[in-house]
Amino acid sequence: MKFKKIHQFMTQHPSTYVMIGDFTSFFDRINHQYLKERLCNLLQVDRLRWDYYAIFKRITRYDYWNLKDLYRLNRLDPTKRDDRFKINSKLRILSPTDYKKYRSDIKCNQDNKGIPQGSSISACLANVYMLDIDKIINDFVVSRGGIYRRYSDDFIIILPMDTSSINDIEKIIIKFEEFKDKGILELQPEKTQVYRLQNHSVINIDHLFTPKLNKKYKTINFMGFTFDGNAITIRDKTTSKYYYRMRHKAKGVAHQYWRGKGYQGSDNLYRLYSPNGQYGKGNYFTYLNRAQKAFPKQSILIPEDKIMTKIRLTLKKNRWG
């Protein structure tokens, strides 16, 4: 568990400043020229070899569909939550026939920025892109006795109060503003928070900084966990997403029963969304069990009987149409 080491550091330094950050449209704003420079620097070459350049060109001049067109062709409404789930759960967005019929709607990225987030190489290129930035931020943070960790476009910085000051957080924000001015990277103020962690109490101090950061959150949320200075829990958003998907799947199974087909798909439902499916390929409960083992003194697990009851009630409630 990546959050375990972060929590251990906060435990070892009970009086700290904690900064949680996010970057605005990270993958969409990756500067192509800066990325190419970082690649050349990493490979220690003046220019990319033809095969490297072919991949670079393909990933920066990528083809894409406009999402609203895909909703329209699937007769779905992007403003409806159920329709958004339907399109995300499709194995094939368009049939081969529709793909050939509407392929003229495919667009090519012509901007000098952006790479597709879902490609197999995108995460690697994003890390190459951030090499120098990570080093600049990490060197500064370590010099103040702290730690810096980044996972894709999310990062956390922890500075012990006995070796740093609140002005150091201001200096970090200024460094990120410099990246923004160069068109390389932009800190997203509405998704960035700064806290003072002291005496097992988490206090949001975002109002002290310019530009103003997000003062809405009162707990430290990172990597799917919430920490209030004492207890570690799974983020409410993560659990809510699980419950929503479980209910949606259970409703589909129940409607099959209503159509006289029995509980078709119930095995898959229990494999994906019940404690019974946590073995083998695993599911949400596999993740919860790993989290519980990482933090044995915390109450992370959801009672199994509670989950099974919810699944059965959802099936019963929706089986009549």
Structure description:
Helix content is 47%, strand content 13%. It is built from 12 helices and 10 strands. Strands 4-5-1-6-7 form a 5-stranded antiparallel sheet, sandwiched between helices. The chain has a 3-stranded antiparallel sheet with strand order 8-9-10. The chain has a two-stranded antiparallel sheet with strand order 2-3. A hairpin with a 2-residue loop joins strand 6 (193-198) and strand 7. Helix 2 (32-43) crosses helix 7 (122-143). The protein starts with a helix and ends with a helix.
Taking the alpha carbons of the first and last residues, their distance comes to: 42 Å
**What portion of residues belong to β-strands?**
5-15%
Mean pLDDT: 89
What oligomerization state is this entry in?
Answer: single chain
- Strand order in the sheet with the most strands: 4-5-1-6-7
- Which radius of gyration do the C-alpha atoms yield? 23 Å
The 3D shape can be described as globular
Low-confidence stretches: none
Number of helices: 12
The secondary structure category is: alpha+beta
Number of strands: 10
Helix coverage percent: 40-55%
Element order: H for helix, E for strand: HEHHEHHHEHEEHEEEEEHHHH
Characterize the largest beta sheet: strand count, sense, and whether it forms a barrel: 5 strands, antiparallel
